Amino acid sequence: RSMDAAAAAAATAAGAAPDFMDSVTSPASGASFNLFSPDAWLAESYKALGYEKSEWRWVNGVSPLSTWREVGIGMALYLGTIFGIQFLMKSRKPFKLTKLAQIHNLGLTLLSLGLLVLHIEELAPIISKGGLFYAICSEEAWTQRLEVLYFLNYLTKWIEFVDTVFLVLKKKPLQFLHVYHHTLTMVLCFTQLNGHTSVSWVVITLNLFVHVVMYFYYFLASCGIHPWWKKYVTTLQILQFIIDLGFVYFCTYQLIISRYYPSSGLPFCGTCAGTEEAAIFGCSLLSSYLLLFIQFFQRTYSKKQAAKRQKQKTQ
């Protein structure tokens, strides 16, 4: 650090202000540390746990929860747990779980926000230097640093299973959309990690943004505050899936045409990274989400509006 101090003194003598960041050192390694970089803090967290973030890679069968067997067991445990609790709660009074719900919802709000900021930090230079097509289709756009974030996002889908546990303990009705969405979003994240689909960041960042809004709403509701904008959370989710599908259909089209029909005369921009299986599964699942959320919106809000208008007519 004596050389750093000398350099800073020389810069000051030359009329330039010393770089504050040069004086900050990593608490774990003593190396230069960017205080304002979320990724730097994440790397420090890894070091505190005894890992080197820059060396981590998703390896099927080696990384945690990286096999179809683990995913299948997770799905079975989730479904068995929620329906088992629902059965046991039939003759019992509902639990309130107010404090636990507040902690859970606020925790997921902050976790989603943190991951969103981390993704933006990584994606901004990729998009600005390579362009949007590069960012969603190039194999080089699937970076090691993004892979770490995709894995952390995948882990949050396991944490979100707790949402449903709270619902059944409070004896709230279980909707097919809720269970279907929670179960298969975890599978979607798993398949995209395996498939190395570079467009994954579009779906993930939009989902994280929606979850910041959604879990913050749930936190307020668990505090007894019921904002007027509940309806717009569902609207935001529908908009999310429309944008998702625009990107994933485009990328899947590029992938299939460039690999199998390059001489067909059909227009395409170039190839897209990822496996066909991951691309088709993503397209199919996100399409089903869009249809189910539109159906939910119509059933929940359109009927309420119709009933409200009918009530006004009879008054």
From TrEMBL:
<dbReference type="GO" id="GO:0005789">
    <property type="term" value="C:endoplasmic reticulum membrane"/>
</dbReference>
<keyword id="KW-0808">Transferase</keyword>
<dbReference type="Pfam" id="PF01151">
    <property type="entry name" value="ELO"/>
</dbReference>
<keyword id="KW-0012">Acyltransferase</keyword>
<keyword id="KW-0275">Fatty acid biosynthesis</keyword>
<dbReference type="GO" id="GO:0009922">
    <property type="term" value="F:fatty acid elongase activity"/>
</dbReference>
<keyword id="KW-0472">Membrane</keyword>
<dbReference type="GO" id="GO:0042761">
    <property type="term" value="P:very long-chain fatty acid biosynthetic process"/>
</dbReference>
<dbReference type="GO" id="GO:0030148">
    <property type="term" value="P:sphingolipid biosynthetic process"/>
</dbReference>
<protein>
    <recommendedName>
        <fullName>Elongation of fatty acids protein</fullName>
        <ecNumber>2.3.1.-</ecNumber>
    </recommendedName>
</protein>
<dbReference type="InterPro" id="IPR030457">
    <property type="entry name" value="ELO_CS"/>
</dbReference>
<keyword id="KW-0444">Lipid biosynthesis</keyword>
<feature type="transmembrane region" description="Helical">
    <location>
        <begin position="232"/>
        <end position="258"/>
    </location>
</feature>
<dbReference type="GO" id="GO:0019367">
    <property type="term" value="P:fatty acid elongation, saturated fatty acid"/>
</dbReference>
<keyword id="KW-1133">Transmembrane helix</keyword>
<feature type="transmembrane region" description="Helical">
    <location>
        <begin position="199"/>
        <end position="220"/>
    </location>
</feature>
<feature type="transmembrane region" description="Helical">
    <location>
        <begin position="278"/>
        <end position="297"/>
    </location>
</feature>
<keyword id="KW-0812">Transmembrane</keyword>
<keyword id="KW-0276">Fatty acid metabolism</keyword>
<comment type="similarity">
    <text>Belongs to the ELO family.</text>
</comment>
<keyword id="KW-0443">Lipid metabolism</keyword>
<feature type="transmembrane region" description="Helical">
    <location>
        <begin position="101"/>
        <end position="120"/>
    </location>
</feature>
<dbReference type="InterPro" id="IPR002076">
    <property type="entry name" value="ELO_fam"/>
</dbReference>
<dbReference type="GO" id="GO:0034626">
    <property type="term" value="P:fatty acid elongation, polyunsaturated fatty acid"/>
</dbReference>
<dbReference type="GO" id="GO:0034625">
    <property type="term" value="P:fatty acid elongation, monounsaturated fatty acid"/>
</dbReference>
<feature type="transmembrane region" description="Helical">
    <location>
        <begin position="71"/>
        <end position="89"/>
    </location>
</feature>
